[in-house]
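Listing S7. Sequence submitted for prediction.
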Amino acid sequence: MSRGHRFRRFRAVLRPAPGRKLPRELRVDRVGRLAAALAGGLEDPGFEILLRRIDGGPFLGGNQVEIYFEGRTAFAAMREAALAAQREILLESYIFKDDATGHLFLDGAKAAAARGIRVRVLADAMGSFATRAGFWREMESHGIEVHLFHPVFKQLWYQPFRDHRKILLVDREVAFTGGMNIGEEYGSPSPRPGQLWRDTHVRVIGPAAWEMTVVFSEGWKRAGGEPFELEPLPAGAADASGSRILVLDSRPHRGQAESAAALAAIAAACRQRLWITNAYFAPGRQAVRILEEAAARGVDVRLLLPGKTDVPVVRRAAHGYYGALLEGGVRIFEYQAAILHSKTLVADGLASVVGSTNLDFRSFLFNAECDLLILCPTTAATLEQAFHDDLEKSTEVHLADWRRRPFTEKLGDRAARWLSPVL
């Protein structure tokens, strides 16, 4: 390592930068040509370079990754990390309920604030609409800083734009993100059979947590929070051994084109298998084409989608794409054991994506999102095993059966698909 690189630092700025225009050859409809041309696929050194060109941000090494597939274990790890906080806790959640699980997090935040830890909580006003005002007041009465993103009825022009991120940060060194909001459906202390949702969350210890603090600061300032200082990250810290992570974060007019292009690049570069789990699937024709092209190259493309859902119209919209996908060689499975809320991707036993982004118009047009693109065989193997386990609780959708559906069902699916851009 050169002396210059050893002392170089990453500035605490958003990547991609606001107002950045993605070069034409890197956009979602063209980047596949560059990715497909990589001789070594996802293992080609040029793949990481391509992703850095797309996002404008660095791959940060030196990270330890732990994956959670069940709310109680994820929430226990989150509370344990908060208990060990020395300086700061930052919590951002689309939904923060004032149920039993929400009160466990409230108690932990109050205890941290009582120890002199600075605690900041950011929740989306629409996602957390059912949460009582008294819950937020109780936080504030214990010295916790609270802001709601785009308050309902106060910022009418911005109501379509929501903060869909799920982030917990402790001392800017430990980070959690994924699909889990704060609520009993993910981790009830005493769940009934089939009550808990199936979701995926990830803990990261290392430099990626610093990058996610930059992401949190964006939503915090947008919600009216007082800006806070972030020290630069020594570049040498990102060169340590461990999982290499690119933080894919977006909000309206920043990062959405880059996130879509990064996913397209993975699909075009993979050679063996591309397995996607997604809760709300209404992707548009271009995404369908990308998956069809991967399947046409002989890639084992599988989609694990909800068999049960809390938003039936979105599931019907997903059905509107099934026919083309099945005809294109994509295998589709519907999860039956519980409501599926997970958002993950794993490709060729190397590249993984875990985060909050659904493959629908809302995530790529209206929401602030955060995902981690992880290059790590161990993490990929963990997600592949979970995918296998989930398939045992799923039903495969076959093309012949799909074509035999009643006409009225087909008509309803088509109507929901037409509505998918506004769902």
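Caption to Listing S7: primary sequence and predicted structure tokens for the chain studied. The mean pLDDT is 93. The chain has 15 helices and 18 strands.
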